[in-house]
């Protein structure tokens, strides 16, 4: 599958979050062309400010694999990770991160600027299906106002 195809699956996870009145961010974690974890934000459901899609997907993958590192895995997430999630991705040694929409308000770049917060070997690709990912966020927050 292509990055776009995996991102479409992450968008479906984000839509599930949207339907549950969660901030619509979805994630898919892939290893050897196999989806090993999928999640969406569950902050409200779990009453846990750390229950972001990225964190939940990482935890699922660590438990499934019995490993704390994912150097050969790719995480697809609909919105650019926040500082907390980028720290978790750093420690996981994720091989590749693919995100959809940038997040100027809450992303790691707000705090790190041009400094890469990920493991030095992590490949980062942004803007995959950016408009579709951003539309979910815009619609969600427009409905909240």
UniProtKB/TrEMBL annotation:
Q: How is the cofactor bound?
A: Binds 1 zinc ion per subunit.
Class of the enzyme per the UniProt entry, highest EC level: hydrolase
The protein's matches in InterPro entries, at most eight in alphabetical order, are given as: CMP_dCMP_dom (IPR002125), Cytidine_deaminase-like (IPR016193), MafB19-deam (IPR058535), tRNA_aden_deaminase (IPR028883)
Which SUPFAM superfamilies does the record match to this protein? Cytidine deaminase-like
Q: Which reaction does it catalyse?
A: adenosine(34) in tRNA + H2O + H(+) = inosine(34) in tRNA + NH4(+)
> Which UniProt keyword terms apply here?
Hydrolase, Metal-binding, tRNA processing, Zinc
Q: Signal peptide: which range, if any?
A: none
The EC number of this protein is: 3.5.4.33
- The entry's active site is 54 (proton donor)
Q: How does it assemble?
A: Homodimer.
Q: Name the family the entry cites.
A: Belongs to the cytidine and deoxycytidylate deaminase family.
PANTHER family per record: CYTOSINE DEAMINASE FAMILY MEMBER, TRNA-SPECIFIC ADENOSINE DEAMINASE
Q: What is this protein called?
A: tRNA-specific adenosine deaminase
Q: Which organism is it from?
A: Ferruginibacter yonginensis
């Amino acid at each position: 599958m292509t990055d776009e195809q995996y991102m479409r699956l992450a968008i479906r996870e984000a839509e599930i979050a949207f339907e549950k009145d969660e901030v619509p961010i979805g994630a898919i974690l892939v290893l050897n062309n196999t989806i090993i974890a999928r999640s969406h934000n569950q902050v409200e459901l779990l009453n846990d400010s750390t229950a972001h899609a990225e964190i939940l997907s990482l935890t699922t993958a660590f438990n499934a694999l019995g490993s704390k590192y994912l150097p050969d895995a790719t995480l697809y997430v609909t919105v650019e990770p926040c500082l907390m999630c980028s720290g978790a991705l750093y420690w996981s040694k994720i091989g590749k991160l693919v995100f959809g929409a940038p997040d100027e308000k809450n992303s790691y770049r707000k705090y790190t600027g041009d400094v890469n917060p990920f493991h030095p070997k992590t490949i980062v690709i942004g803007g995959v299906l950016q408009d579709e990912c951003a539309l979910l966020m815009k619609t969600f927050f427009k409905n909240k106002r």
